[in-house]
Amino acid sequence: MGDKVSLASLAAMKARGEKIVGMVVWDTHMAKIVDRIGVEIASVGDTVGHNLWGQANPLEITMDQMMPVCQAVRRGVKNALVSADFPFGPLQAGPQQAVDAAIRMVKEAGVDMIKLDGAAEAPEGVEALVKAGIPVWAQFGVTPQTALAYGMEYKSMNTADAVVPDEMVDTLIRQAKMLEDAGASLLDFTNSGPIVGPAVVEAVTIPVIGGFGGGPWLNGRVRMAHAAIGYSAAAVDSDAENYANVGKIAFDALGECAADIRAGKQIKGATKR
């Protein structure tokens, strides 16, 4: 059994140059698995509705829907820090609404910190949560709109030969420092790229972790566990290079189970009567 992860231990990992691992999980069993692996962060992403439940729009997910997901992950985690995303709404509604939502997640689901998407546009929300004693993982970064504003192709940000305007670098460093000054314990830098990413890591003292568009230039990475192992219906017919193809494994295994039932055979693993 590993040691309980703390925010202080994450800061120490950055200082030692050790990479921080985060995994997005949505259920107790996957939470137990990533915790046993020894990841530092179990992140309850608000994309659960879109990626796991088939919701058409990622903004459909509600706070009431997020709560049992957070509770399920909390039950499976002993050592990692449990982070929970806000669904769209509480942060945008204002600091007090954000605090109320965060308190609910802490009290009812026992999460350790809150990840705020779009935090650079709402630093007052970060400050409000920190003042209430709730640690914040603050997300910021490059969007297609901001890339276009600087005359860049969004997809080119992650290439080593990308030409990133100094003004963009300065803006992202300024946002990172602003969020650190607001009290954020961690930063989630999306679409950082190998040019801006290292500059931001160097500019702040808190760990900078990336999901989409991250890379080894950051202090760590966060990856959706279901995507990493190919757990989806689409994976059955996919040739994507993941760490596994659970969708295909499930398809083949359940097809074999169905064939046994049709053939009148005993089901594997079933108790004989």
N-to-C SSE string, H for helix and E for strand: HEHEHHEHHEHEHHEHEEHH
Query: What's the total number of strands?
Result: 8
> What fold name goes in the CATH topology slot?
TIM Barrel
Q: What's the architecture in CATH terms?
A: Alpha-Beta Barrel
Going by helix content, strand content and strand pairing, the class is: alpha/beta
Instruction: Bin the strand percentage.
Output: 5-15%
CATH class: Alpha Beta
**Regions with pLDDT < 50 over 5+ consecutive residues?**
none
Give the biggest beta sheet: 8 strands, parallel, barrel
* Spatial order of the strands forming the largest sheet: 1-2-3-4-5-6-7-8
Helix content: 40-55%
Q: How many discrete structural domains? A: 1
Number of helices: 12
What is the average per-residue confidence, as pLDDT, rounded to a whole number?
A: 92
Measured between the Cα atoms of the first and last residue, the distance is: 38 Å
- Which radius of gyration do the C-alpha atoms yield? 20 Å
**What overall form do the CA principal axes indicate?**
globular
At the fourth CATH level, what is the homologous superfamily?
A: Phosphoenolpyruvate-binding domains
